[in-house]
Amino acid sequence: MLTIPFNRPSAGQREIDYVTECLHGPKHAGDGPFTKRCHEAFGALGLGRVLLTTSCTDALEMAALLLDIGPGDEVILPSFTFVSSANAFALRGATLRFADSAADNPNISPDAIEALVTPRTKAIVVVHYAGVACDMDRIGEIATRYGIAIVEDAAQAIDSFHRGRPLGTIGDIGAMSFHETKNLSAGEGGLILIRNPAMFRRAEIIREKGTNRSAFFRGEVDKYGWVEVGSSFLPSDILAAYLLAQIERLNGIQDRRRAIWNRYERALAGPLLRYGIATATLPDWATNNAHMFYLVCADLSQRQRLVDGLRATGIIAASHYISLHSSPFFHRFHDGRALPHSDRFTDTVLRLPLFVDLTDAEVDTVCNRIADILAA
Ligand SMILES: *Cc1c(COP(=O)(O)O)cnc(C)c1O
């Protein structure tokens, strides 16, 4: 039977060559030559001060440490997101205040943020869902007005912009992911982006087990020691070798992903309206990095019909997050507010296969099958 997976990682000859070069070289641990080249390559993309991390999850945990989040601090974040956006702050003992999504897309609603601000609010975490920028003008204005830090969970947002600025560089701290399901992959991997130079210095320390090892290797101190709390957040140079090849392929990867996205859009956006199914729309401040092509189904049963019907012919489409405020772990801590948009996206978002080696014929097969299921 034909099978079209939801995602398939793609490593080319250059990934193999760089990893081989690293393995034959003298440095396999973190912060070797390939890590340095990744940092430079991301700098050249306009991402500013960055450090590779083992995952976006770890970059978010670093963010919580860098902002000195602790018990009594409140953090506002969307409910419709991946657990890592929340865990990083829960681990530090913060009180999580989940905000609803906007009505017309899964990103956090600025009005919902504003309603949750208290004197204890220390950070707002925004998640650029599907790589589409949140309303950073309004959110930035709220953060400035109340003196609150912004953390951007830009896990899905490489090569995407808000009014020309790369996502991840707008808030105080940004976090990206190179998990194999993202546009750029290192298998597992991440990046922390930091605006403030002093905070960047601290990030180097926290990432290196709380030591000033990075400064030592630059010759700035003559021995290194334990200067604050930290952990091991740096990936092996072997992973950086894989990632460097991916960064160098970014334009090709993005051209192909956008072509797939546009092919889905052309085939589905108009025809599915009559079934009450919407596709993503782009606010005028945002760009599309083709991280994800998703449908917003009319209801849960229609989505289930599509998931089952596609699966029956070997096509894997995926629902997405379960609202964190009603999750098995968190629901007993939630303050009881209804978050209707988050719950609606929990029930209705359906993500279609999208990966760089997906063929046009496969895209057409997915679209035709969706049309058949809905017409049946
Ligand atoms: C993928 C993802 C993460 C986690 O990334 P890892 O690199 O797997 O830790 C966090 N937040 C969002 C929004 C994601 O999509």
Describe the structure in your own words.
Helix 2 runs parallel beside helix 9 and helix 11 crosses helix 13. The protein is of the alpha/beta class. It starts with 12 loop residues before the first helix and ends with a helix. Bound molecules: pyridoxal-5'-phosphate. The site of pyridoxal-5'-phosphate has 14 residues, from helix 3 and helix 4.
How many β-strand runs?
12
Strand order of the largest sheet: 1-9-8-5-4-2-3
Query: Structural class from helices and strands?
Result: alpha/beta
Please state the average pLDDT score.
97
Ligands, ions, cofactors: pyridoxal-5'-phosphate
Radius of gyration, CA atoms, in whole angstroms = 21 Å
List keywords for this structure.
12 strands, binds pyridoxal-5'-phosphate, 3-stranded antiparallel beta sheet, 13 helices, 40% helix, alpha/beta, 376 residues, 7-stranded mixed beta sheet
Compact overview of the structure:
The chain is an alpha/beta fold and 376 residues long. The chain has helices at 13-24, 33-44, 56-66, 83-90, 110-116, 136-146, 197-207, 213-217, 237-248, 250-272, 300-312, 340-348, 360-375; strands at 49-53, 74-78, 95-99, 121-127, 149-153, 161-162, 165-166, 173-177, 190-194, 278-279, 294-296, 349-351. The chain has a seven-stranded mixed β-sheet, sandwiched between helices.
